[in-house]
Amino acid sequence: MPPPPESAPLPATGLLLTGGGARAAYQVGVLEAIADLRLAAGAGTQGNPFAVITGTSAGAINAAALACGSDDFDATVRRIADVWQGFRTEQVYRADSLAMLDAGARWRLLLGVGQLLRKWLRLAPRSLLDNAPLAELLERMVPLDRLPQLMRDGHLQALAVTASSYSSGEHVTFFDAAAPMEPWVRSQRIAVPGHITHAHLLASSAIPFVFPSTGLDLGGHTEYFGDGSMRQSAPIAAAIHLGAQRILAVGAGRMSEPREAPAPNTFTGYPTMAQIAGHALSSIFLDALAVDVERLRRINQTLALIPPVARQNTSLRPVELLLISPSERIDAIAARHVGALPGAVRRLFGGRDALSGHNEVKGAALASYLLFDQGFTRELMALGRADTLKQRDEVRRFFGWAPS
Length: 404
Hints:
Largest sheet: 10 strands, mixed
Mean pLDDT: 83
Number of helices: 16
Strand content: 5-15%
Helix content: 40-55%
Radius of gyration: 22 Å
Order of helices and strands: EHEHHHHHHEEEEHEEHEHHEHHHHH
Number of strands: 10
Shape: globular
Distance between the termini: 17 Å
């Protein structure tokens, strides 16, 4: 399909960045490649190709950082990339031995002795790790005070981040838009308009059990929220509700994992805690996007069967989707970097054996969400760039950019 003429502007383009802790480094590599392709096509060095930006979990942080620099997409992508290229664990969470011992001891006390001891000691552990350093990083990395002016100047149509309420059980999309928009309500899903804050980003990225929940005001009362990937049944929906007619979705895991035959002498005993935790987190972070993409494509196919005249009498419309997701197993990449995890974190999930040897790749699923280490993040960024450049023709068609 040739790009449309310049006299026919493209419909609003949306960006969806999904969750996945440290896996979100992959998204940054994708954005870097898009910036390079855009520059090579002569599409301008300033401005923003995404009118609507949405994100979940760590993807919400990337989305908000990108939105806050929407007047200069290229420079903003480079700034975000600089942060991810130099990531260190201590920028995201505290994992020194004393802190971890304290957290582990509290959990053992509560789980082993029960409610009586809890009342006696007045202990209430809120998470395994303390993400206070992340809050400090967000203050520097995401200047949310710029958003109102950027929207008034037309650089951005809407920003949305999602979080899951432990209080009500609902999945909530918090959005800020340049023009008034009606919030939507679906089964177990609601939208709330208002200004996005750093607290919203902390709530959206609070991996369950790992990081503490965050209290947010909702309708005049406080509810406590955790990672937005939990109970997220329709990750693409927010961008559509906010007016996007074309969406670039960036995943955090392969859309289809081929079933691998067990290797000779594969250990098939009881799973380690790291394996169980990694499997649970993968179910939270990786499954919803694949299901939603399949649903969207099926709807598009159905709409194509309806005559255009009949379709005009409905609110239904096809949505163009470009999906970019890892071509390699991120678990396998993480397995090469588990040694960079703080020792206290490795001990917490079963020690060295839980993340090495026969359990290496399975146990590394958990590590892939917590490996905020530059060796791992740089390799994921390189993969994101490579995967995007493999789809360069599809990317150019999607944005209407001519080849260089």
